[in-house]
Amino acid sequence: MSPIQQILQRRAAEDSALLLHIASEKPSASDLAAWGRITLKRARRMLWVVKVLGRALLTKLTSRHLSYDEIDIIASGLNKLTGTDTDRVKLVDDFCEQAAKVLPHELEQHVKQTVATLTAHRNHPRLAFNKTADANNHLYFQGAGPAELVAAVETELVATANALRTDNMKFSEAMFHALVRKVLHPSGKTTDPFLPYRNCYVIVLDPTLRYHADGKVMTTTGALVDVKDLVNQELQPYGYAVAYALSTGGDYEHVGTYGVQRFFNQHQRFVGSLEHPICAYPGCDRPAKTCQAHHVQAAALGGPTLLSNYAPLCAVHNGQNDDDPSKPPKNGRIEFDPATRVPGLRRFPGDPLRYNLNPVTIKGIRRYLAYLRGEGYAASFRD
Ligand SMILES: [Zn+2]
User: Fold this and answer.
1) Mean pLDDT highest for which of 28-42, 73-87, 209-223?
2) InterPro entries in the record, alphabetically (predicted)?
3) What DSSP state is assigned to residue 238?
4) Which of 292, 301, 234 is nearest to 263 (CA)?
5) Separation of 245 CA from ligand 1 center, angstroms?
6) From ligand 1's centre to the CA of 317, what distance in Å?
């Protein structure tokens, strides 16, 4: 027998003896780790194996000269049978018999199959969600069910995921978005998935307005106005909404302060910079990307934070703009040409608009659209 064989056999025997001693003396995991110079994880695992098997079964296993790994495999199997009326002693006899004939990794397969057979009847399908989010505010969920059903669900999601997937998106990420879409937007409509969880501000519109259709209301003058514009207008002068609600104690309490969208979001700024590639002020060449998002009708005066009210202005020209047209003019103000929606400078009330004639502005979508319609194109360049 080679020295390696001798050492390994001696170790296997000693491992068995060690487990029996642990069963009777019940040392702490930290003592085990320190004395054996092993990791805490390994020490805890040894204690766990001893606990799962109990003294009687452990004695049986060690008397059959099983190694620590084999004993661990059998303990894992038995642990999964907790709560079943399996005859543990008979099962351990079967495992020992098997262990004498095969190698540990084959024993592991045998134990797993046996456990799967014995627990088949109680394998209900399940889906569970964690309660606590991780550091990235992600919640975990997992489940299991009949293979053919899970495969059918997967096939459905894969089709949607492939349609949703962009170039630099991992497939697993696309699968998640597919699940969200299938569950939350079965009709195919894509709305804000977080909407049901957001706080909201309820606005009752002026009683003179009549709800018309498709998000429009009719004013007393017969004009159709977008509800979205109206809501934004209601909120803009305030900037934020403070909510009070009745508490369980029966008194009104402050429950939250919510910011109103006064600033153009990234997407609006992106589309806005395509429509108007540089600062709207005549002669300025600041690219829209580095400009401020200017409300042509001032937010404080009810101007909505919508693309139809957006113009890029560099910090200097935004600072100079006369925001309130009711005050005496100082530097002039940016306004839209009503036909083309191209922004220009009106130096004094009644003056014609002056446009930024920088050649780059021709690349802007607004000017191109005016050109397509064959109207106002020349006007937008009239100085
Ligand atoms: Zn400028």
Assistant:
1) 28-42
2) HNH_nuc
3) T
4) 292
5) 46
6) 5
Contact 99, 68 (CB under 8 A): no
The whole-angstrom separation of Cα 229 and Cα 18 is 77
- Which pair of tokens denotes residue 315? 């910090």
Cα–Cα distance measured from residue 233 to residue 180, given in angstroms and rounded to the nearest whole number? 33
Alpha helix stretches (DSSP H) within 309-355 = 315-320
Q: Comparing 59-68, 107-116, 145-154, 197-206, which segment has the lowest mean pLDDT?
A: 197-206
Q: Is the pLDDT of residue 48 over 70?
A: yes
Residues with CB under 5 A from ligand 1 (ion): 279, 281, 284, 286, 314, 317
Q: Which two tokens stand for residue 248?
A: 């369980």
Residue 224: phi, psi to the nearest 5?
Answer: -95, 125
Q: Mean pLDDT, the chain, as a whole number?
A: 84
pLDDT band at 76 (very low <50, low <70, confident <90, very high): very high
pLDDT category at 71 given cuts 50, 70, 90 is very high
The tens digit of pLDDT for each residue in 121-134 reads 776 888 989 888 88
Dmax (CA) of the chain: 109
Token representation of residue 280: 């709207």
CA 338 to centroid of chain Cα atoms: 41
Closest CA to 159 of 171, 148, 147: 171
pLDDT of residue 383: 39
Cβ atoms within 10 Å, residue 217: 19
Question: Which tens digit of pLDDT belongs to each residue from 177-201?
Answer: 899 888 877 776 555 555 555 555 5
Q: How far, in Å, are 1, 64, 156 from residue 9 at the CA level? A: 10, 14, 54
Distance CA 191, CA 193 (A): 6
